[in-house]
Amino acid sequence: MSSIPNQSFEIAFTRVFDSPRELVFKAWAEPEHFAKWWGPKGFSLEVVKMDVRPGGMFLGYQTSPDGSHVMWGKFTYQEVVAPEKVVFIQSFSDEQGNTIRAPFNANWPLEIMNVITLEENDGKTTLTLKGGPLNASVEEQAAYDGMAPMLKQGLEGTFDQLADYLASQK
Predict the structure, then answer these.
(1) Reduced to 3 states, what is the DSSP secondary structure of residue 38?
(2) DSSP code of 106?
(3) The CATH number of the domain covering residues in 11-168
(4) Residues paired with 74 in a beta bridge
(5) CA angle 51, 125, 58 (to 5 degrees)
(6) To the nearest whole percent, how much of the chain has pLDDT over 70?
(7) What DSSP character marks residue 140?
(8) Phi-psi map region of 86: left, alpha, beta (phi>0 left; psi -120 to 50 alpha)
(9) Which of 57, 92, 48, 86 is nearest to 73 (CA)?
(10) d(CA 85, CA 80)
């Protein structure tokens, strides 16, 4: 039985990586890999905690290229099936891992559910990400919907970094 709450997904994103599924999974599940590619281009990621199992948590912070902005975030893992699936709830947080409002929009949803699936075919891996707000108010849903195009653009940039990182691991 899945532990995923009822969820309608707002974003669906698919990308094919020229790497085996096990390596792509490790890039999502191991801090030494994850810190090298996750986040906006030019930002650095410091992983404070990463326990990729149901009930486990990722906690870390991103720093802007000029060092003027620091954003903390967390993932709470719901389901992990190595090497094919990772389900997590993503939130902004403080240094202790308490969920907080996004610094850029007071109406941004507190929680975003993400489902990552990985399928391998001929040494390449197709990653599918589905995501959307969890338990969002009308105002939060509207904020998310309004930023969905920017969110997709940001994901493309993040996945470009993942592709570059995976290529460097060959």
Answers:
(1) coil
(2) T
(3) 3.30.530.20
(4) 59, 91
(5) 15
(6) 95
(7) H
(8) beta
(9) 92
(10) 6
